[in-house]
């Protein structure tokens, strides 16, 4: 706390892990006296650098770039890049810390990292985004590599940005390697990678419901966000027979009581991915829906809630409201969208709650599959990748059940995810000695 007191998001993420992992360490002799958690909370390396680029008016702009290389005990650093004005060391350290546990849970050999910049892609032209991405990579390239650190996308970084960064990396290194994931189909990308985080979150929720003899069929689903994760969480929910009634962006949310069906979702995907519009424009085409400026969707009655926008977007009062309205299952598509108070509300009410490090691990797992395909110089079919994704989500679910059992037989998925993720990394660190 002393060393990181000025980093509230990072402390929040560490606190959540410490609450469940410290009792486990105390019960297991092999982890005693090794200061293992103390070592895990210190990044192996944190790189911060200047990114200068020229905007469309010929003016020089300066942003700050970062890469946090958190832990490489079980494999090369792996984790996304976020471009958003709120990006700072605290946010990236929390994301990188969570990533270590998440990647361990996937069962694939990936360490944890995260990076990005305070650059805001909103309102920038394609050329400006390209110049920024190129400038960003002229420094990042010396710190990454397909056996060292393999970044991917996150908020503000999609296929367009990955393409620009990959192009510059390839030029600087004169080498075509799978150094980034989330690449386009024709140049090393994996099928299902764009869908993987959203699909994976729904598969995880489906596993939790199945354990209770329930399913998505006929359920009302509230989703926040309208970006990559939200779009595909909505698509899979629809496929499984649920009704999706909300989507949002940072300006507000839309509520469509008739349901956002496949055709309407296609409209949202075009609006957000191609026209880069705002979610309130949904009403121009579907005027029966309602728009709530500056609000979040958690007061809408639902059976299942999927927070898929950003950290701390669901607080204790909103959690109470969801529970009061009969919500029975919350699966996080975003990273740390629920505050600590919200998680305690869900747990006290004994509703199904999946923390992001377990339920949104499908994205990085499929990135891992993209790395395997690149290494093998092969491309698996959509069906093959989707099957592997489903199996991985089921395995993660089962690990959470194994390590998260409460005395009364219920499952604490937070405890389960933290301990299952911890054990593999801690064992590798112990085997490798004090480095
Ligand atoms: P996108 O950039 O595609 O979409 C982000 C969405 O969240 C947009 O609708 C955006 O609205 C909204 N949003 C962003 N910041 C805020 C904010 N401060 N308040 C309210 N809404 C906000 O990102 P992704 O869908 O890729 O990522 C969403 C979440 O999922 C993040 O937490 C990310 O870390 C997590 N995640 C993503 C993975 C992936 O594979 N992409 C993997 C695992 C986790 P607006 O357009 O107005 O900014």
Automatic annotation (TrEMBL):
Q: Which domain of life is it from?
A: Bacteria
Annotated ranges, domain Glutamate/phenylalanine/leucine/valine/L-tryptophan dehydrogenase C-terminal: 190-433
Please verify whether the record's keywords include Oxidoreductase.
yes
Going by the UniProt record, its keywords in alphabetical order are: NAD, Oxidoreductase
**Subunit note:** Homohexamer.
Q: Belongs to which family?
A: Belongs to the Glu/Leu/Phe/Val dehydrogenases family.
**PANTHER family this protein is in?**
NADP-SPECIFIC GLUTAMATE DEHYDROGENASE 1-RELATED (PTHR43571)
Listed name of the protein:
Glutamate dehydrogenase
What species is this protein from? Polaribacter marinivivus
**Name of the coding gene:** gdhA
């Amino acid at each position: 706390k002393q060393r990181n007191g000025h980093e509230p998001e990072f402390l929040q993420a560490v606190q959540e892990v410490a609450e469940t992992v410290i009792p486990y360490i105390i019960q297991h002799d092999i982890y005693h006296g090794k200061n293992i958690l103390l070592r895990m909370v210190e990044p192996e390396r944190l790189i911060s650098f200047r990114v200068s680029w020229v905007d469309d008016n010929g003016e020089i702009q300066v942003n700050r770039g970062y890469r946090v290389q958190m832990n490489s005990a079980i494999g090369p650093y792996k984790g996304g890049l976020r471009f958003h004005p709120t990006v700072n060391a605290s946010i990236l350290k929390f994301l990188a810390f969570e990533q270590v546990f998440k990647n361990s849970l996937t069962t694939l050999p990936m360490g944890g990292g995260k990076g990005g910049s305070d650059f805001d892609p909103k309102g920038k032209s394609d050329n400006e985004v390209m110049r920024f991405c190129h400038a960003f990579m002229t420094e990042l390239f010396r710190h990454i590599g397909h056996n060292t650190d393999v970044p991917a996308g996150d908020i503000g970084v999609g296929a367009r940005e990955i393409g620009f960064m990959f192009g510059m990396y390839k030029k600087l290194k004169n080498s075509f390697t799978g150094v980034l994931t989330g690449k386009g189909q024709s140049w090393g990308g994996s099928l299902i990678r764009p869908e993987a985080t959203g699909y994976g979150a729904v598969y995880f929720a489906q596993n939790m419901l199945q354990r209770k003899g329930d399913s998505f069929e006929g359920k009302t689903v509230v989703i926040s966000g309208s970006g990559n994760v939200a779009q595909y969480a909505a698509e899979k929910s629809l496929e499984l027979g649920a009704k999706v009634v909300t989507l949002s962006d940072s300006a507000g949310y839309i509520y469509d009581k008739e349901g956002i069906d496949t055709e309407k979702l296609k409209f949202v995907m075009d609006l957000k991915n191609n026209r880069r519009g705002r979610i309130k424009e949904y009403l121009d085409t579907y005027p029966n829906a309602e728009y709530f400026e500056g609000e979040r969707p958690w007061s809408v009655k639902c059976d299942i809630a999927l927070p898929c926008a950003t950290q701390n977007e669901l607080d204790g009062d909103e959690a109470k409201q969801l529970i009061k309205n009969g919500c029975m299952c919350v699966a996080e598509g975003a990273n740390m969208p629920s505050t600590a108070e919200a998680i305690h509300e869900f747990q006290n009410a004994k509703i199904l709650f999946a923390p992001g490090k377990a339920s949104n691990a499908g994205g990085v797992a499929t990135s891992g599959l993209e790395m395997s395909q690149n290494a093998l110089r092969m491309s698996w079919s959509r069906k093959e990748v989707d099957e592997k994704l489903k199996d991985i989500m089921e395995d993660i679910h089962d690990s959470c059940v194994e390590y998260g059992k409460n005395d009364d037989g219920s499952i604490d998925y937070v405890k389960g995810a933290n301990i299952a993720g911890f054990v593999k990394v801690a064992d590798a660190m112990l085997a490798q000695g004090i480095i």
